[in-house]
């Protein structure tokens, strides 16, 4: 295989696509290719439905694929999961660009809006218009809403955007290397012929 993405890059991308739970799952998958969703659920202590949701999301992104088997006694379907190294890059590139677009949209939004928050963990931060609609009281806990400084969010977003851009750059390089390393199709050998074609030049007349 000409192409190899290192494990950390895969994990970074998985985190971007499916969050920390996705990363947890793929860590186990890297250690044990062919692992089942049930095993992953036990190892990660995540609900089986959540595990399946993440696995299918990563499957749609082309990062994972599965083999379908049947249990001998019960006939139950068993999904065995694998990381799809070869296919990953193209799909990842597509997804990374989407993620990058979304992050940049979010950054613009953060830069152009003021946010209000009650200070309670778990409560939502509201943009000005919405805060006004709620008369500057949190719709969840009813505490007064106060203007918050989203400078930190903006900085975090900018960092994330740079990170994704770096990954994209690296992956583009890997992809280019892969393309150039592909053996070229050999042309059938034939006797040497002298080129008889002469290029015709088109003369243009300019009227003055
Ligand atoms: Zn609140």
Walk me through what this model shows.
By secondary structure, this protein is mainly α. It has 6 helices and 6 strands; from the N terminus they run αβααββαββαβα. Strands 1-3-2 form a 3-stranded antiparallel sheet. Strands 5-4-6 form a 3-stranded antiparallel sheet. β2 and β3 form a beta hairpin. α2 packs across α3 and α4 packs antiparallel against α6. The protein starts with 6 loop residues before the first helix and ends in a 27-residue tail after the last helix. The relative contact order is 0.11. The structure holds zinc ion (ZN). The site of zinc ion has 7 residues, from loops.
Topology:
Layout: H1 7-31, E1 35-36, H2 37-44, H3 48-60, E2 64-70, E3 77-83, H4 85-112, E4 115-117, E5 126-127, H5 128-133, E6 146-148, H6 151-181
Antiparallel strand pairs: 1-3, 2-3, 4-5, 4-6
Helix pairs in contact: 1-2, 1-3, 2-3, 4-6
Bound molecules: zinc ion.
The site of zinc ion has 7 residues, from loops.
């Amino acid at each position: 295989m000409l192409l190899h993405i290192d494990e950390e890059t895969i994990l970074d991308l998985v985190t971007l696509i499916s969050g920390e739970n996705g990363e947890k799952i793929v860590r186990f998958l890297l250690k044990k290719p062919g692992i089942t969703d049930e095993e992953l659920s036990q190892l990660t202590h995540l609900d089986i439905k959540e595990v399946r949701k993440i696995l299918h999301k990563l499957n749609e992104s082309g990062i994972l694929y599965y083999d379908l088997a049947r249990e001998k006694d019960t006939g139950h379907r068993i999904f065995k999961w694998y990381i799809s190294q070869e296919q990953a890059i193209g799909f990842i590139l597509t997804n990374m660009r989407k993620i990058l677009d979304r992050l940049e949209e979010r950054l613009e939004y953060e830069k152009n809006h003021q946010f209000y928050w009650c200070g309670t963990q778990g409560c939502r931060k509201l943009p000005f218009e919405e805060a006004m609609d709620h008369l500057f009281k949190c719709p969840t806990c009813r505490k007064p809403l106060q203007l918050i400084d989203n400078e930190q969010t903006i900085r975090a977003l900018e960092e994330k955007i740079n990170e994704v851009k770096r990954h994209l750059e690296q992956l583009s390089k890997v992809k280019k290397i892969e393309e150039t390393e592909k053996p070229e199709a050999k042309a059938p050998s034939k006797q040497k012929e002298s080129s008889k074609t002469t290029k015709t030049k088109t003369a243009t007349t300019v009227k003055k």
